[in-house]
Write a structure and sequence with these properties.
Number of strands: 21
Distance between the termini: 61 Å
Structural class: alpha/beta
Shape: globular
Helix content: 25-40%
Length: 494
């Protein structure tokens, strides 16, 4: 039996983070959680910030736990949410905690930039990135517009996973997948676009050297070695964007697949060799984000279980105390397709009451208004599955290959009802799993850097060999076809 190789993964989300230990032995991987901690949004002076020092502290705490357990780790990798960044001064110090993407400064920045600086179509033609007000380009524009002192004095601008890697190693890089979320990167050249940077008063020198996933950033500094009790462990640039790491963990056997990263938000897409940037992709607001091994993640963001989660918070205690399977099971007993919504309608972005927003939408579209938790839950699940069909149909038009299967990964891969609905609606075979896809992708890229695996397909074969995927085959085609026609009639009139 071969000796175990341990890898340390830092997986940071917008509400919480984890440090994870993983190993690959005899062609299979194994994961274990070391620490879990909150990632608190700080509100001060009318702005929202991330506590970058607290995140650094938690990484150090996780590394101390590695030392306490006497484990010898091969490397360290960090993935986080996208778009946010840290300003570093000429003296090598952080200039203020980084702004969070929820900061209200960006609410009007996108429209202002696209109206007065560079047009929307021109920006999309360069970047192929869907428009969201909190993309890095609009954050930087808003900070420049307000005369932000941290930006004014920044010697370097590092995206969050790169900033944390810099705190561990002292080396400044710009990892490709996280940079692609900024709407500053040209996916054809795979470099930050000089014209877009210039429009913000920035130069390329403000950012670190562009590196691909699998690159060694450096080793732990003497200070970090002293703090943790570890030696000069390498820090690897994994797919720093968490969705990039997640998609790397799709256990597909060939390229003919679509993926649905299912959670609070749903991201449905395909993996391609080249970006897909056209008038049609612009019209449908698809995005081209960086993947591993030079691939592009061509995808669309869909409002996922956010709808259900927000409703659940509003329901009375006796409903909230039900388990998810219990509540969702009740939803399966009510009339299907009675009420349908477009999950991506602006009305559901941030309503004061999600229940009221759903009921108002149904009322305005002359549908029966769902009242009970079971009716509301069924409305959400039916509507999500039909929205998935719409996006899957578009992907079939864009894909340069036939889509044979839809892989559902992430926490939503455990939702057996929605998984079956998705298979029924799309007409595709659905394979659900793994749940821990982001951490797995992080660790697999470290394994590739350590030459334990050769390429993405060997990575995916190990993942498929290590988990049990649940298969869902399409059912009730005529029923779902009729429901889809009804759905399109409703959302196209709204």
């Amino acid at each position: 039996m071969e000796q175990k190789k341990y890898f340390f993964a830092v997986d940071l989300g917008a509400t919480s983070g984890r440090t994870i230990i993983g190993n690959i032995t005899d062609g299979k991987f194994d994961l274990g959680e070391l620490t879990r901690f909150p990632n608190n949004l700080i509100e001060q002076g009318g702005h929202y910030y991330w506590d970058i020092y607290a995140l650094y502290f938690e990484i150090i705490r996780g590394l101390k736990e590695v030392a306490r357990r006497g484990l010898e780790i091969t490397s360290i990798g960090i993935d986080t949410w996208g778009v946010d960044f840290v300003c570093i001064g000429a003296d090598g110090a952080i200039l203020r905690n980084p702004r969070a993407y929820r900061d209200p400064i960006t609410f009007d920045a996108m429209d202002d930039y696209l109206k007065h600086v560079i047009s929307k179509k021109e920006v999309y033609d360069v970047t192929g990135i869907q428009f969201m007000n909190f993309n890095s380009i609009f954050q930087l524009y808003a900070m420049k517009r307000e005369g932000n002192e941290a930006l004014r004095h920044a010697q370097k601008i590092l995206f969050v996973p790169d900033a944390l890697s810099w705190m561990l190693t002292g080396n400044e890089v710009c990892e490709y997948t996280i940079a692609s979320t900024s709407q500053l990167l040209d996916p054809r050249t795979k470099q930050l676009d000089e014209r877009l940077l210039c429009s913000l008063g920035l130069t390329r020198s403000k950012f670190g050297k562009m590196v691909n996933p699998g690159t060694v950033i450096g080793v732990l500094t003497d200070e970090v070695q002293r703090l943790t009790g570890l030696g000069p462990v390498p820090v690897i640039a994994v797919a720093g964007h968490d969705t990039g790491s997640a998609v790397a963990a799709v256990p597909a056997s060939d390229e003919k697949f679509a993926y649905l990263s299912s959670g609070t938000w749903s991201l449905m897409g395909i993996e391609t060799k080249d970006a897909i940037i056209s008038d049609l992709s612009y019209e449908r607001n698809f995005t081209n984000e960086g993947g591993i091994e030079g691939t592009t993640r061509f995808l669309k963001n869909i409002c996922g279980m956010w709808l259900y989660e927000r409703c659940r918070l509003e329901w009375p205690d006796e409903v909230r105390q039900l388990s998810h399977p219990e509540l969702q099971g009740q939803a399966m007993t009510v009339e299907p397709f009675r009420s349908l919504i477009n999950p991506d309608d602006a009305a559901f972005a941030a309503p004061s009451s999600m229940i009221a927003a759903i009921q108002k939408y149904c009322r305005e579209t002359n549908q029966p208004v769902p009242e009970t938790p079971a009716e509301i839950c069924r409305c959400i699940f039916d509507s999500l599955a039909l929205r998935y069909r719409q996006v899957f149909t578009w992907l079939q038009e864009f894909a340069p290959f036939r889509l044979d299967v839809l892989h559902i990964i992430g926490g939503g891969s455990l939702n057996k009802y929605l998984n079956q609905f998705t298979a029924n609606s799309t007409g595709a075979t659905v394979l659900a799993g793994p749940q821990e896809c982001t951490a797995i992708g992080n660790i697999m890229m470290q394994a590739k850097a350590a030459r334990l695996v050769n390429d993405i397909w060997q990575m995916r074969a190990i993942i498929a060999n290590s988990i049990e995927m649940v298969k869902y085959e399409p059912q009730d085609k005529a029923v779902w076809d009729a429901a889809y026609d009804k759905y399109l009639g409703i959302v196209n009139k709204k």
